[in-house]
């Protein structure tokens, strides 16, 4: 496995555009710290975002995991491009000639997916921990390391999404078209949601949400609920207005299983497609 990872990292390092995207991703993740410096002035009202509790433990794990996950497209582009380059540069054929089996080739790509997700998760953990230690009002060890399931969910979300991108790269062979298909699939799931809610099940009984929860992108999104309404200031304002924003924000085990299931499906389909093709 180490040999397969070494091969992939050599390919990555020799691709300038991939290096730029990877470094850009980690720079953007680090820039979360800049959020703490943003100040708002509305007449006599002055406040700083860091003072609103967004970096408090354990809320910071939820907040950062949700928003940093939107940056995953940077690494997704790298994964799709790496797969497309295998075809355009004919390195996939050369790897097979040199003795690498198709199973090992797909495994090397999946290991790269795991590596990207793991490094990104560790980076998120370190950045969040540092910001929390600086700005959080709570520093008890039990509080600091509670709600870490959001970090685990972040890792699973990246693994699932990158596996989908890997499958698209194998299926379509061209990075631009693969990313285009990803965008189209997002629209398809959005249209399917509207049809389920308005034409089939309605919005009141929750059946539409349950059905859409089995779709690949929606299942990955469902892993981490939006954290904004969890903020104390939002909850207090809602209560004053007579609104109820109470919700279960925790990561659900069955949603994790769905994403793991899709991950296995995408990797298997990638191998099945590669196995059938005459390279």
3D architecture notes:
The structure is a single chain. The protein has 279 residues and is an all-alpha fold. It has one domain (2-24, 49-276). 71% of the residues lie in helices and 3% in strands. It has 14 helices and two strands. It has helices spanning 2-13, 16-30, 32-35, 59-68, 72-88, 91-97, 102-135, 141-144, 149-172, 175-200, 207-212, 216-222, 232-240, 253-276, and strands at 39-42, 45-48. Strands 1-2 form a two-stranded antiparallel sheet. Helix 5 crosses helix 10 (175-200), helix 7 runs antiparallel to helix 9 (149-172) and helix 12 packs antiparallel against helix 14 (253-276). The longest helix is centred in the middle third of the chain and has 34 residues, at 102-135.
The rough form would be described as: globular
**What is the helical fraction, as a range of percent?**
over 70%
Mean pLDDT: 84
Strand percent estimate: under 5%
Main β-sheet description? 2 strands, antiparallel
Task: Provide the succession of SSEs.
Answer: HHHEEHHHHHHHHHHH
Return the domain count: 1
Please give the structural blueprint.
Elements (H helix, E strand, L loop, with lengths): L1 H12 L2 H15 L1 H4 L3 E4 L2 E4 L10 H10 L3 H17 L2 H7 L4 H34 L5 H4 L4 H24 L2 H26 L6 H6 L3 H7 L9 H9 L12 H24 L3
Antiparallel strand pairs: 1-2
Helix pairs in contact: 1-7, 2-5, 4-7, 4-9, 5-9, 5-10, 7-9, 7-14, 9-10, 9-12, 9-14, 12-14
């Amino acid at each position: 496995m180490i040999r397969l990872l070494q091969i992939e990292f050599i390919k990555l390092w020799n691709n300038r555009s991939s290096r730029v995207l990877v470094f850009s991703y980690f720079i953007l993740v680090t820039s979360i710290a800049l959020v703490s410096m943003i100040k708002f002035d509305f007449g006599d009202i002055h406040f700083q975002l860091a003072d609103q509790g967004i970096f408090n433990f354990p809320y910071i794990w939820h907040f950062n995991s949700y928003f940093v996950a939107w940056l995953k497209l940077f690494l997704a582009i790298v994964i799709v491009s790496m797969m497309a380059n295998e075809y355009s540069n004919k390195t996939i054929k050369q790897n097979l000639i040199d003795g690498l089996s198709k199973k090992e080739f797909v495994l090397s790509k999946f290991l790269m997916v795991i590596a990207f997700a793991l490094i990104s998760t560790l980076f998120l953990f370190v950045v969040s921990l540092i910001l929390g230690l600086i700005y959080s009002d709570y520093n008890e060890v039990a509080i600091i390391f509670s709600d870490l399931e959001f970090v685990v969910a972040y890792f699973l979300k990246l693994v699932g999404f990158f596996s989908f991108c890997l499958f698209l790269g194998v299926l379509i062979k061209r990075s631009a078209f693969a990313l285009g298909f990803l965008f189209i699939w997002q629209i398809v799931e959005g249209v399917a949601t509207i049809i389920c809610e308005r034409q089939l099940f309605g919005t009141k009984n929750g059946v539409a949400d349950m059905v859409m929860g089995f779709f690949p992108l929606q299942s990955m999104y469902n892993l981490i609920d939006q954290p904004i309404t969890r903020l104390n200031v939002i909850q207090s304002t809602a209560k004053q207005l007579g609104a109820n924003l109470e919700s279960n924000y925790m990561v659900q085990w069955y949603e994790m299983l769905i994403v793991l299931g899709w991950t296995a499906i995408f990797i298997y389909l990638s191998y099945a497609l590669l196995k059938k093709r005459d390279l």
